[in-house]
Amino acid sequence: MIAVVAAGLLLTGCGSSGGSEEPESKPSKKPTPAAAQSKRPVKLSAEWIPKIDAATGSGTQGVCASVGVDRCAQHLTRIVEVVIDLEVAIDDADARARYPRSVKDIDKVSAASNRYATDGCLGDPAADLDGSPCFKYSADIMGGAASLTLDLGADEMQAELNG
């Protein structure tokens, strides 16, 4: 599980489905819209690309010029939270095989997030010095999220081509 940067947040995804359907008296020859829709493969890009874009947003340029400061850690945390939620959505849809590039990006963000937290980058005055890995961790978090916006769509197109 992804360690959330500098906050130690644990996000849980909960979903519930409810309702009951009454059995039909005769089998229908034509699939119901819900049945037809359930046969379509999951497409996550339409929902998640805007969420990733919002987390990495245009108003954040330069926010991690100093990677050890709280403002940068908060920005990275917002990104990681969205990535965690996307990972949960992929798992809930049982779609890891459908999203190989995206899962690789998620793993990159996860590893960088864990290292940022483990190496104590937040508040470290040496985080911005030459040779400190903290800048690379923050770049991997932001870059991994940016790659997700491309790879979600690419994974879906590849899956459609493969049938």
What features would you describe in this structure?
The protein is mostly helical. It is 55% helix and 0% strand. The chain has helices at residues 33-39, 45-56, 70-92, 100-118, 134-162. α2 packs antiparallel against α5 and α3 (70-92) packs antiparallel against α4. The longest helix is centred in the last third of the chain and has 29 residues, at 134-162. It is elongated and about 50 Å long. Residues 1-38 have low confidence and may be disordered.
Short characterization:
This protein has 163 residues and is an all-alpha fold. Helix content is 55%, strand content 0%. Helix 3 runs antiparallel to helix 4 and helix 3 (70-92) packs parallel to helix 5 (134-162).
